[in-house]
Specification:
This protein is 37% helix and 19% strand. It has 15 helices and 16 strands. A 5-stranded parallel sheet has the order 3-2-1-4-5, with helices on both faces. The protein has a 4-stranded antiparallel sheet with strand order 6-7-8-9. It has a 4-stranded antiparallel sheet with strand order 14-15-10-16. The longest helix has 19 residues. The protein is elongated and about 85 Å long. The chain starts with a strand and ends in a 6-residue tail after the last strand.
Amino acid sequence: MAKKVFVSGCYDLLHSGHVEFFQQASRFGDLYVGIGSDATYLEYKHRKPMFPQEERLFMVKNVKAVKDAYINEGSGVIDYLPTLDKVKPDVFVVNAEGGSEEKRKICEERGIEYVELQREPHAGLKARSSSGLKKALATASDNTTQEVGIPTRLDLAGTWIDQPYVSHHHPGWAITISLEPTFDVRDRCGLSTSTRNMIKKIWPVKLPKMDPEMLARLVFCFENNPERHDGIISGAQDAIGICVPGLARHYYNNNFWPEKIESTQDEMTLRFLEQHLVMIPLEPRRPGCSVVEGKDITPTKVKALADAADACWNAILAHNLDGFAAAYRDSFAAQTAMFPGMVNPSINGIVEGSASVQPMIDKYSAMDDVLAWKMPGAGGGGYLALVVNDSKEFANNHHEAINLQIRRA
């Protein structure tokens, strides 16, 4: 009786590399394939597959080397577990670059032989990969723009330090993430909508494909053109936060433009943030609202803001949830120490209790699964951005909560 062999993957844009892998795996026995569902693909790749799961299942099932195939019913990177336990294979085969200690351990626990194969093209054919095909398709297309919809940005720590009247007391980093507009981005809500609206005047639908930092410079200069008469210089963190994909930090030292910009596209880091960040919609900032009245900016307070941003960045890169939450809280405390109007804004020069967002902060900060909180941007209303134990679980329990999708490069 032939052994049962199992492989798993998404198999979107099915190509000769997949077929060769199936053929090599089938040499160990009858081959069964687990296929990532559309929901898992969206969660893992942050975009819809080219072909829906039923079509991918049809194509894989009709590859000669495949005995049978199933849509995986699990989620995340181990979405294949239910299929694995259904098939009960003797051998689990993976591509070497897709191997992991987690998969090896799963096989050990179930008494399954674990095999890693090197990616090799069929004799006489060119090596193929899904990522390579997608890159080639993007290059070949006439499309010169990025994904539909102008991104927005969420600041995580260091807000206000992009203003020279703050950073001249002490230099430091501002930390931002660029967000896909998967929700209704409302005006006057702390998500850089003024900058976003400026961008729409030039590029109404999509950002152009160009160096993100140069793009951010162009946006910053356009928004702060010499004809602007209100005397306000919009902080560079807005343009950078929108235009630089992924997670970014920018270092300010008594200038409007940062001395340096650093960013990361590390998938596990971006996923860490998505797994622990949600936003709660509040009322927008009222007309006549000011968050700068009553400000109290000192070197000690700015240093506290800078220190919190350093700690926040390090915790995020280490995927340290407790450290991230602590630094996130410290950053907001440093912000509100300098700008109490972020929480208790004045309306036409008068602090009105009815405009305070403190009741909403009190409500959500008291929840057991909320670890930290802050107001995005200048505050005063709009959204409450929370660090939570599990963003999906929180959103399931609180239907007002918005899950965030970070824009990838």
